[in-house]
Amino acid sequence: MAAVEVRDGFKYYGRSANPKIILNFLNMNVPKGSIYGLLGASGCGKTTLLSCIVGKKQLNNGEVTVLGKKPGAPGSGVPGPRIGYMPQEIALVEEMTVKETIYYFGRIYGMSDDKIREKYKLLRDLLQLPPAQQLVKKCSGGQQRRVSFASAMIHDPELLILDEPTVGLDPILREKIWDFLVESTRNSKMAVIITTHYIEEAKKANIIGLMRNGILLAEDTPERIMNKFESNSIEEAFLILSQKQGDDIITSNPADFKKHPIIPALPGDVIPSIEFENRNTNIEKNPINYNCNDDDFDNRKRVFFTTRGRIKALMTKNFVQLFRQPSGIIFMLMFPLIQLSCFYLAIGKTPTNLRIGIVNEEVDDIHNCFNSSMKTVTAYNETCEFNKVSCRYIKELGDGTAHRIYFKTKEDAFDAARRTDVIGFLHFSHNFSESLQERLNDGRFASNAAFEYGQLNVRLDQTDQQISYFLERRLREAFENFLANLLEDCGIPRGIAGSPVHIMKPIFGTLDSQFQQYVAPGVVMTMVFFLATLMTAAVFISERTDGVWDRTLVAGVSANEMLWAHLLSQFIIMAFQSFEVIMYIGLVFNVTNHGNPATLIGLLTMTAFCGMLFGLLISVYCSSHTMANFVATGAFYPMIILCGLLWPLEGMPKLLQHIVMFFPFTIPTISARNILEKGWSIMDFQVYNGFIVMAMWIVIFFTACVIGLKRGS
Ligand SMILES: Nc1ncnc2c1ncn2[C@@H]1O[C@H](COP(=O)(O)OP(=O)(O)OP(=O)(O)O)[C@@H](O)[C@H]1O
Fold it and tell me: Is ipTM strictly over 0.90?
């Protein structure tokens, strides 16, 4: 039985209507115990062929058999521990040390820690691995390649697949690696498929396959190939072969291939497997092999649908990846605190340092207003006399909300407001006091002029709605107080000045409830959601683009196992982050939580978890960081705007109100507000409905992720 057999392998990329053919009814035979050198120009399809052999990709037509079984078939061990795969890219976790990397792969393959240690020592000396504690990202290209090679070899696979392992290595080390492979295959049934650009080094292979345009032009021992073409080098033989069979076999239409099948590896050139299988396979002789039974492999013990070793390996990788990057720690633990500080310091406070213009025609010099000896009210039996009461209002107003700037005329104040030197201006007419007095004394008999001149005229720049709102509120409050004091001085009850609308003690909250309190639950929830989204999308996309994901899949770990490991490790971080957030706003910003902190932390953790799944979903469907960022940023604003965080939902069109109720933040934000402000428990419908909505979104995102991952794998 051959280690690898490919029969009529056909593979294309793109749509079937316009295919880019990569493998062209290719035949290949890799005997056990042999080194198979797969040679061919860049882009001829070597990596694609290897991907089909390790089960990463599927052929469109034809058959692959690896170690007697179809890759991916149940119990085939491929992808899995029967093969060792070193991809072309480094495909290692950069934040891991050299030793951690070796242990990562060893544990995934189910080796016990003792066995990994033993094997690691061997490989370290043989491959001159960098120091154990050196981070992979601090290793040179050649060093990283050696670590990658050692990771593929750690478990003594039956089939070792090396995609250009010697690129960037010095000639001595290349020689060493080849010697090592020759030695390993001589004493075992291990088969090695190796691709290389250094054609001449392939002389050491037992068989070489010369690949061009998706087919094997020849497959034979190096000597026989050179003899056949009467050449002194493999390179020369390859050149002759390419010229001989060259361009006339190249076509881009798959139908043509079926009509005129390509000449596969030269008939009769296939080396009988038996030739290699009959070799000395006394495994004991090979120092790197060891007999082991399953009991030695505590890392193979099953835990649910995975193994102990895989949990250990994947969880360690995830935490190392996060905590070895300063940006990861800052992002997960410091960003929430920084963002919350910004929010609590900047949002919801009463604006100060505004400038308001004042034109008081009642006085020639504004300083007279502040003359303490000035008498403004003289009360008689039935009536009251006012004198320059506008000054009392100006004093009542103070400089708290807005700084007072005095102008002589309305025109001056208007110009200043147009120049935005002031936010607006107040105007008291020259007979303000007399008019007010007439309104008060004559009541229903007062003249229209008394109403006109006895009012405080205000012109404001309304373009900043919040500022003008605060200013208006302050002006009205100050006027109510001013009037009440005036009436009191006249011997009239103060209550007449006030509005008959009495706002009593609130049912929930306080009379001076702030905007900040209203938006805080939504802000905290969206913040933890999107931090989790961005972080997860970044981690997953990096893992896929740097090849770690694929390499781990080829090592036999399923996408589901990787998914769960990520979910578990990030859940721990999210729970901690939620706890940190609640503590921080309570301790630093004195936010009173009237409800149960555990309920709030629970809801926040679910929100972060949901955000993480959203990030995962983005990473499944977006192939690059840029695309993922576009999607995350694109989703951010609609979600925030539509969840009632910035403006009450009641202000939206009715239909939209119903739709946004199903959005991930709308009901959960209300639930969080109900816990925080009203102190309601999880037993209350308007609290647990938030948990239900969040759980629903978790299920939706998770299902979409699993479907996407299944499709992609
Ligand atoms: N996912 C893909 N979609 C479309 N085309 C692809 C894909 N992957 C590879 N190709 C194309 O398939 C061809 C063969 O690629 P492959 O990586 O198998 O070649 P190779 O022989 O390994 O090259 P090299 O030695 O440079 O690594 C190339 O033209 C490549 O651009």
Answer: yes
